[in-house]
Design goal:
CATH architecture of chain A: Orthogonal Bundle
Largest interface: A-B, 72 and 86 residues
Oligomer: heterodimer
Low-confidence stretches of chain A: none
Number of helices of chain B: 8
CATH topology of chain A: Helix Hairpins
Number of domains of chain A: 1
Mean pLDDT of chain B: 83
Helix content of chain A: over 70%
Radius of gyration of chain A: 17 Å
Number of helices of chain A: 3
Strand content of chain A: under 5%
Largest sheet of chain B: none
Number of strands of chain B: 0
Low-confidence stretches of chain B: none
Number of strands of chain A: 0
Shape of chain B: globular
Order of helices and strands of chain B: HHHHHHHH
CATH architecture of the largest domain in chain B: Up-down Bundle
Number of domains of chain B: 3
CATH class of chain A: Mainly Alpha
Chain lengths: 100, 168
């Protein structure tokens, strides 16, 4: 039987890898993939706690999280395509048109 | 036996996650992310949530990753790969992230949570029928809200990605 702390530990490691990716990489596509990693690690936490408490709400919440992640990816990739088409921007540090 | 499987899935997930954030080519990153999401689906099976594992494979490994790969293909990969790999302040992040991770793991395994977290699971495998019943009765309102949000996101994505010139 796998203890609950293993699942939480795995989720923490995945979350930190994703956070490091968001903070260090400049490529917007890779940053989005790192955000997906972080969302997934949170899902592991939700399902693990739900399973170990015999509670269905963890799974229900995880389903909603997956749906929101799909919506987020669709909108973010739409924004990225329009950025590349209009201004040839690929990296996050070129996004400075709102800078004062 | 279950622990061996967990360790295998976890190691593969962590290695592929590291590959996602460190590889230069976005296509390789997307494929590694696919492997990582598949491992997470396997973890869901270990957590007796087969429905969620199937949803994970359908939506993430199927839809989201195809979307990522399509966008990488539409955009010019060579242009994407040009320039430096990481930003300016990444050294600081690389220094601080392992420390924070270590701190979290210490809290989880050595702290008070360790005792609470090592109890025996009370949950059995949840049947799909039960999830569907809950989703359409108790959680009907959030379900409808999420469906409207998906519709809005779809319309927004189409509007954003559309050519401005041929519209109007």
């Amino acid at each position: 039987m796998v203890p609950l702390s293993w699942f939480i530990g795995l989720a923490v490691v995945l979350f930190m890898i994703g956070a490091a990716g968001v903070l260090t990489r400049k490529n917007i596509i890779i940053m989005l993939m790192s955000v997906e990693l972080m969302l997934n690690s949170v899902n592991i936490n939700l399902v693990a706690f739900g399973h170990y408490h015999g509670d269905l709400r963890g799974q229900i919440f995880a389903i909603f999280t997956i749906t929101l992640a799909a919506a987020e990816v669709a909108v973010a990739l739409g924004i990225l395509i329009s950025l590349v088409k209009q201004r040839r921007i690929f990296n996050s540090d070129e996004l400075d048109s709102m800078k004062g | 036996m279950e622990q061996i499987f967990f360790i295998g899935f976890a190691v593969l997930a962590i290695v592929s996650a590291l590959a996602v954030v460190s590889l230069r080519n976005p296509v390789h990153s997307a494929l590694c992310l696919m492997v990582c999401l598949f491992q997470v689906a396997c973890i869901f099976v270990l957590l007796r949530s087969p429905f969620l594992a199937v949803v994970q494979i359908f939506i993430y490994v199927g839809a989201v990753m195809v979307l990522f790969l399509f966008v990488v293909m539409i955009l010019d990969i060579r242009k994407v790969m040009l320039g430096s790999l990481v930003g300016k302040r990444s050294g600081f992040v690389y220094a601080i992230m392992p420390l924070v991770t270590l701190e979290f793991l210490l809290v989880i395994f050595k702290g008070g949570l360790g005792k609470v977290a090592s109890n025996i699971p009370s949950g059995e495998e949840v049947k799909v029928a039960v999830i569907g019943k809950e989703l359409f009765t108790k959680y009907l309102f959030p379900f409808e809200v999420v469906s409207i949000l998906l519709l809005v996101a779809m319309v927004g994505a189409i509007v954003l990605a559309k050519d401005r010139d041929e519209g109007a």
